[in-house]
Amino acid sequence: WGPFFQTWDLAGAFPAILDDEVVGEQARKVYADAQAMLKKIIEGRWLTANAVIGLYPANRLGHDDIALYADESRQQPVLVWHGLRQQAEKQEIDGVMRPSRCLADFVAPAGTADYAGVFAVTAGIGAEKKEQAFLAQLDDYSAILFKSLADRLAEALAERMHERVRKELWGYASDEQLSNAQLIKEQYQGIRPAPGYPACPDHSVKR
Predict the structure, then answer these.
(1) Which of 90, 148, 170, 195 has the most CB within a 10 Å radius?
(2) Phi/psi of residue 52, each to 5°?
(3) How many domains does the chain have?
């Protein structure tokens, strides 16, 4: 819920923000409105969610790129994920310069079997139509509330799909038992970098 409240310029950790001396009253209001709208989204089937997951043989290609292959022959990549190594100057610690990392550093080179999982999710099928309906009624508040909830639902779906990869589909952490708080702190095995974020800033891979 943290990013949801940030949409409304309300800073604070959930659920403590609901009792905050400064923003608590407003936080409780938008939270109550969000709960009411979530109920309408579910009952009215305003949104449709969808997800696709792929687990691919993978190897580092050169220094910065990752090749994903269709099968274990690893002959022809179906996708080359072009990486960008960290650009900021690093500090020296105990006489050792910190390395400039790249996602490719965490994938084995050719000759060693390694794998990578990729997935795409949406919780916004139908979102534009509903948003426009609110705007046509000059109800900007509901339009913003709806969009912010759709955004959070997409993030929740990504979190759920990542959990299924770890525990079921890939199964490398089948015995994982984490609380919501631990999930939010990313105390799981593995990472979930997304295009447009610092680890992979190139949006072109989404095409």
Answers:
(1) 148
(2) -135, 140
(3) 2
